[in-house]
Design the sequence.
């Protein structure tokens, strides 16, 4: 039997309040570019703007954020911390307006709320800790100080929040955000979470937490023996895949640990997806943005596992921010490279950077030889993006539709290359970041993807 083709979608990741104030934009985008779906997010609540029910508020582990303004200074402006569900006090009138206007325009609405990769700084009692039980180093805070994904009290409440969103708002689907560990540029988060709840969950999946912790300790010990000369030899040797594996620890302990983390998240996502479909029917879709293929496993995404519990794969942005598909690897190279230079005094910056580009299979691209992030630097974002999409095609099974992230907020030529990469990888549409003033870019989206 041949499976039916995946549904084509153009999903606009938009701002709830802006669309509520000018809902006529929906019909315009439907006609001009073929928009099928909106995914509204409020910058105030970090969800689509859902109001909590009385039951959710009573059970909510994050209700007291207004008493934590020292840890969350933006709370003084009324901005909610990004946590794993729906917190009370939100006026949902703007979201209701967007839902009504979308129905009139024949456009789907996907609800949006965050999960785990932020909020640990405001809620240390639910935060990720490393394998030694220590809180995450604030040095990497810009990449996220996350929540533990295995805390039963948070998981149960989050599941109720998702069910509330689909039942009380009748949205056509949910695309959750932050369904991941902090971005892998946060080096310390790579060895999280080491709490008892994660240990129990890992052992249920058949992993030995103590063996992995011992293996990673041993790997770190050996890393301390790295010298500038040894590093230079590694660069010049152009390592093969089997050599990389040998270097990631005895028995491939890094691979085992990263797979374990990813399976923990995938299991939680599958439980959420099942609850959503049970509450709203099988036509209500559930999924999340994921990291691009090159860093997916490092951030907690094993596509093969993820696809079992979700109805689609998408991403947050083409470039920029924490999850931009073309900037994730440069961010990792900048942070890991900086750490390696501190760990191996006297190492050459060019060696460290070359080794890391090679690790991610980027070394044939026109990339800087110094740590990324220097003033005036120009990265070949379109080439990097196309590579990640080629890898997406190669590494996803085809079981669910692919909606790669297209940031069409800049000049038309860049938008054209991003959209072409989506076409070339066999994408089933895209998740769009739009600037409505950029009419040429909008037209390109319509031509290539609409
Ligand atoms: Zn944990």
Sequence:
């Amino acid at each position: 039997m041949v499976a039916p083709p995946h549904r084509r979608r153009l999903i606009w990741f938009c701002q709830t309040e802006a669309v509520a104030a000018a809902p006529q934009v929906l019909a315009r985008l439907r006609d001009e570019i073929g928009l099928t779906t909106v995914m509204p997010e409020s910058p105030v609540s970090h969800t689509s703007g859902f109001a909590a029910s009385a039951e959710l508020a009573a059970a909510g582990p994050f209700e007291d954020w207004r008493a934590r303004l020292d840890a969350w200074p933006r709370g003084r402006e009324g901005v909610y911390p990004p946590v794993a569900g729906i917190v009370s006090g939100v006026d949902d009138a703007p979201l209701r307006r967007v839902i009504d206007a979308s129905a009139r325009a024949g456009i789907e609405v996907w609800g949006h709320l965050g999960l785990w990769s932020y909020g640990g700084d405001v809620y240390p009692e639910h935060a990720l800790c490393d394998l030694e039980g220590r809180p995450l180093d604030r040095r990497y805070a810009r990449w996220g100080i996350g929540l533990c994904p295995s805390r039963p009290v948070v998981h149960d409440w989050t599941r109720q929040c998702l069910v509330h969103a689909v039942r009380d708002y009748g949205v056509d689907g949910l695309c959750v955000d932050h369904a991941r560990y902090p971005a892998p540029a946060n080096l310390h988060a790579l060895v999280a979470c080491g709490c008892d709840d994660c240990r129990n969950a890992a052992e249920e999946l058949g992993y030995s937490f103590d063996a992995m912790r011992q293996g990673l300790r041993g790997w770190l010990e050996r890393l301390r023996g790295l010298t500038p000369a040894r590093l230079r030899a590694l660069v010049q040797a152009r390592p093969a895949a089997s050599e990389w594996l040998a270097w990631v620890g005895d028995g491939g302990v890094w691979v085992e640990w990263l797979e374990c983390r990813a399976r923990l998240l995938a299991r939680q996502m599958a439980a959420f997806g099942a609850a959503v479909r049970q509450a709203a029917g099988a036509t209500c879709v559930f999924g999340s943005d994921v990291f691009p293929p090159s860093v997916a496993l490092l951030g907690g995404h094993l596509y093969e596992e993820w696809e079992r519990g979700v109805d689609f794969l998408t991403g947050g942005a083409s470039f920029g921010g924490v999850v931009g598909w073309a900037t994730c690897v440069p961010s990792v190279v900048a942070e890991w490279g900086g750490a390696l230079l501190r760990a191996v005094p006297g190492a050459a910056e060019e060696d460290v950077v070359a080794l890391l580009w090679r690790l991610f299979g980027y070394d044939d691209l026109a990339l800087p030889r110094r740590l990324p992030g220097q003033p005036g630097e120009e990265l070949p974002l379109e080439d990097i993006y196309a590579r990640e999409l080629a890898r997406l095609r190669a590494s996803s099974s085809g079981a669910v539709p692919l909606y790669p992230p297209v940031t069409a907020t800049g000049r038309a030529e860049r938008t054209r290359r991003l959209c072409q990469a989506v076409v070339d990888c066999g994408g089933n549409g895209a998740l769009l970041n739009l600037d409505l003033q950029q009419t040429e870019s909008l037209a390109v989206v319509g031509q290539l993807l609409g």
The pocket of zinc ion is lined by residues 148, 150, 193, 195, 197-198 (CB under 6 Å). The chain has one domain: 9-207+264-346+382-449. The radius of gyration is 22 Å. The CA atoms of residues 211 and 253 lie 9 Å apart.
